[in-house]
Structure formats: C-alpha cells, structure tokens
Amino acid sequence: MPSITTLPIRKRDSKKETRRSMAFLLEALMLLLFVTISLAILMQLFGASHIRSTEADELSYALVLATNDAESFAADPVAPAQPTFFEPLNHRLVAVETPTDDTYEITRNVRTEAREGGALYRAEIQVIRHETVLYHLDTAHYISREGVL
Predict the structure, then answer these.
(1) Are 63 and 129 in contact (CB under 8 A)?
(2) What was the pLDDT predicted at 116?
(3) Do the beta carbons of residue 122 and residue 111 sit within 8 Å?
C-alpha cells in the first residue's frame, strides 16, 4: 500500500487578516467619500451652468426683440407703439396676443422734439419678462422738415 503523506496545516493569523480587511474597508470608505464629494461638486457646477445658459438665452431673445423693434421704429418713427408679446417656442420667438408667465413684453416710449429743420424722435425700448427689464435700448430718428407730418 502506498504511503500517504500529509501536508502540515498552516494556521491562519487572525490579526493579519483583520488588518487586511480593515485596510480594505478603509480604502473603500475613502473611495466612496471621494466619489460622493466629486459628484456633489459636479452637480453644483451643472446646476450653475444650466442657470447661466437659461439667462443667456433670455438675454439673446431680449436683444433680438429690442433690435427688431428699433429697426421698426427707424422705418416709421411716427407709427403708434403698442406693447407686443412674444413667447419662446422650440428656440424661436412666436408673437402671442395674451401674455402668460413665459411672455416677453416689448414696450416703446416715443418722445418728439421739434427742431429748426425738422423733428427728432427718441424711443426708449424695453424688453420685460417676469416683471424684470431684461434689455433696455435708447434710439433716435431725425426727420427733416420736408418729411415731418
């Protein structure tokens, strides 16, 4: 009969294993803490970026509306100015008759100054949204005496 050799059984060092498992848990907790802090910072950055993007869109829309109204004023400064309402729809501005919460309102105040050779029309154009003036534009148009109505 063949002889069976037995290998010695190695005893586990429980202190060494406890240190290893504690080191692993500590590393895992440090990694979890780092990931959590990084995510919190990234969420704040993305939130601030979204707010700035919205503000930039509003300002761009207001600039376009004020410029268009100034061009309309330059074409006919004596035309009556009426408040006009626009709403954003699919990254475009659409004219609406009744204002809502998302409405941009354009107001134009025109003053006439009589001069020796004609008349100077001054317009103050404002674009308002949520009761806040987003953009303010002052412009003027001079009409000589031959063109004054």
Answers:
(1) no
(2) 86
(3) yes
Residues 6 or more apart whose CB falls under 8 angstroms from that of 26 comprise none
Which residues lie across from 111 on neighbouring strands?
A: 122
The number of beta carbons lying within 10 Å of the beta carbon of residue 21 is 10
Mean pLDDT of the chain: 88
Using CB atoms within 10 Å of the CB of residue 64, give its burial: 0 to 12 exposed, 13 to 18 middle, 19+ buried. Answer: middle
Q: The pTM is what? A: 0.71
**Cα–Cα distance for residue pair 89/68, rounded to 1 Å:** 18
Per-residue pLDDT tens over the stretch 59-92: 999 999 999 999 999 999 888 777 789 998 888 8
The DSSP bridge partners found for residue 140 are 122
pLDDT at residue number 45: 97
Contact 143, 121 (CB under 8 A): yes
DSSP string for 3-64 = PPP-PPPPPP-HHHHHHHHHHHHHHHHHHHHHHHHHHHHHHHHHHHHHHHHHHHHHHHHHHH
Locus of tokens 């300002």? 59
